[in-house]
Amino acid sequence: MALPTWDHPEPLAVDSAPVPEYGAGSLADVLPTLAAGMSVPDMTAAIPELTPADRNCVFLIDGLGWEQLRAHPDEAPFMTSLLASSRGGTGRPITAGYPATTATSLASIGTGLPPGAHGLPGYTARNPATGELMNQLRWNPWTDPRAWQPHPTVFQLADAAGVHTAQVSSPTFQNTPLTKVALSGGTFHGRLSGEERMDLAAEQLAAGARSLVYTYYAEVDGKGHRFGIDSDPWRGQLMYVDRLVQRLAEQLPPRSALYVTADHGMIDIPFDEQHRIDFDEDWELRAGVALLGGEGRARHVYAVPGAQADVLTCWREVLGEQFWIASRDEAIAAGWFGPRVDERVYARLGDVIAAARDDVLIIASEREPKESAMVGNHGSMTPVEQLVPLLQVRS
User: What is the mean pLDDT of residues 16-39?
Assistant: First the structure.
């Protein structure tokens, strides 16, 4: 008697997802490594390839992944010349962390903790206290920042240890909850233009015998979302930020190290039904789902009580060839959010978690019209999203 055969390929195995390099080469490991080199107590040099410097500056370019940078040498000649310096001269990238999205990554770099510990596990996540989705980038609806993310930042710990500490960014971000929970400590300096930020970052580096300075630029990501990474506006932003990096590098004071990194990469997704699966028009995917969180390539799916197993089964059957589909406990066991997930964070994660492997999105055209219209997207564990540079210039 012949055995029944599976009528389509097996779903992707949860443990086949390329988990970020937590503890050795992720965004969460950058500042602890630099701070340890400046003798800040209780900091661990987790990225062994990096050598200490008295003055350290991290320039985070939102949305500039390793693969996008390598693919555009003509637009970014200065950063291209630094590719071999990445990750302490190994010429290798680091990983962003899961999900590869701005709120999560900024919290990871600022606190030195992976997402399961700092507790910002996605673009939107459920607040267990209210049952509502919380947008962790825009901090809406309002939630007490210190209750949501109670750990100190590396900047706060460095400042307490006598390191001159500063953030140089757009004035818009000075008082946002995300800045408070992820990047506070020392002094915030708001400057509008990129050139002003570079000049002031160099000044702040020189202001202390030991200095830790952070600066940020957003519009590479903004143009990628709106126009895609295969567009002239995106290339124009890459050309501009390449000049900013060179401007800062040429002003480094003695005994300094500049590290250029990013919070995630990006991928353009075609506008058709094959590549954009609309949750709002798919009754199978909606069945048993109370809330849809995360973003198109990194979804948190919150089931109605008692429907968790059915939702997991359905999502695996419908999407399992294109997405890694895991239950909450499976994703935690596989280390997607880091080596541990704090108790306060556990219920913020979806009952079902969907991470895209293929060039595909789960959009929600009615409830997320703006996000569903984006050309460039990110969030998952694929190399184009996860790998980010850690370029280095030393003086």
Answer: 98
Q: Which residues of 329-342 are buried (b: 16+ CB within 10 A; e: fewer)?
A: ebbbebbbbbeebb
**What CA–CA distance (Å, rounded) separates 332 from 326?**
9
Each residue's pLDDT tens digit, 108-153: 999 999 999 999 999 999 999 999 999 999 999 999 999 999 999 9
Tell me the C-alpha to C-alpha distance, in Å, between residue 352 and each of 152, 285, 286, 290, 338. Answer: 30, 11, 13, 12, 17
Q: Tens of pLDDT along 38-87? A: 999 999 999 999 999 999 999 999 999 999 999 999 999 999 999 999 99
Query: Does the structure show a pLDDT above 60 at 6?
Result: no
Paired tokens of 322: 């294109």
Taking the CB of residue 300, how many other CB atoms lie within 10 A of it? Answer: 26
As a whole number of angstroms, the distance between CA 11 and CA 316 comes to 6
pLDDT above 70 coverage of the chain, percent: 98
Phi, psi torsion values for 394, nearest 5 degrees: -125, 150
- Please give the average per-residue pLDDT across 11-17, as a whole number: 95
Name residue, tokens 């206290």: 129
Cα dist from 195 to 74, 124, 216, 308, whole Å: 21, 33, 12, 51
Please tell me whether the peptide bond between 99 and the residue prior to it is cis, using omega within 30 degrees of 0. Answer: yes
Q: What is the C-alpha to C-alpha distance for residues 160 and 155, in angstroms, rounded to an integer?
A: 9
pLDDT at 1: 42
- Determine the Cα angle at 200 with ends 111 and 48, to 5°: 40
55 neighbors 125 (Cβ within 8 angstroms): no
- Nearest-angstrom CA–CA distance, 94 and 89: 12
Contact (CB, 8 A) for 109 and 58 = yes
The per-residue pLDDT of the chain, averaged, comes to 96
Q: Which pLDDT belongs to residue 3?
A: 44
Structure-block tokens of residue 268: 């353009």
pLDDT (0 to 100) of residue 10: 86
